[in-house]
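Note to self: keep these together.
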Amino acid sequence: MPTRPEISYFLYHSENPVSCRSKIWTSPLPLHPSRSNLKPDAKADTLTSYGDYFQIARKFLRKDRFELLAFAISQQILRKINPEEIRRISICLEKHGAFYHPARIEVIVNDFGLTFVLNLAISQAGRNCIEKEYHALEKLNHIFQKPLLPKVYGRAEIRLKSNQKAGMFLGEWFDGYHEFHISRDPADDTHKIRVWDPENQDFYLSPEQSMEVYRQASRILSCCYNVETTEQIFSWHHASGDFIVKVEDHSIDVKLITVRSYDAALEDMDKDTKVILNALLVFFLNLTIRMRLDRIDGVGEIVWSDDLTVSGSIKGFFEGLAQKPPTDLLPGPIDTCFKYYLESYSYSELLDISQAIANAYHLRAPERPLVKRCLEAHLETVCRNLKDL
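Structure:
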């Protein structure tokens, strides 16, 4: 008779174990994003407790006698693993997002360990997002063999005791990568990118490192943009922690860990040279704007990043275009054609398009006033960097 793996539960880090005897086990799960909040939220979903969350996660992982987890492990190490070889599983609730409550799944198999992410959604909006994101990640990982996005291994919906449903999927975890946000450095009272590293200590990036973060983030989004169909990743936001970074020996590596949707900006329209170049122009200008938006420490006021973001965004954008195969709709390499197309626009024409992008933000979108206020100075910075390019 095979031994079942031992399953343990933790909140936010491995030094904070919880069990059915813990006080928080019956506390309601918060609905609102929080980096770490062990206190029950007055506005929480009273139908779902922390204990419910861990039981749901356990039920998903145990499905078909841990077959899915064994499959995910096998995919990671490129050899067959049987469920009976799984010795121990740790389920660590990481944070409370706007749509998901992600957990870090640490697995011990015989003499080695692996880590996965379990994205779990309780709300209807979150469950809708789970299904859409899972299929988007599957599609993009099939198209792009480069490790730009996390692999996904399986999804399910599980009914709760209250007759609600929870949606979830198991995906790749990027070890050594951390969430980052703009923060105020008390040492000099300036805004800098702070990397959240709970195992060691949070730290700030230098201006050069920050520019590299924006360059790589822009390159990932541009690589995933389909010039012919106008399919693109949207909507992404730094404030949601969509990008993560690994800093090792002063080198920077950025990953995108979520794809809420991957849809075409233009549908039911004949795509000719002018149409796809114009769509690419809108994508480019929107990229440079959104790349500058964040919230202080991820949850505070909306903030506009320094001009160095623009330099990194433009470099990453053109690097992404340069990696794309040629298309019959353009007479030459995509990045070269787009550079010529950009040169045909005056500053005032680019400003008109940028203002149209800003006006497309929802009237109640909290970032709308900031974008509109900073737009002209931003575009001047974009044009100055394009000349240097």
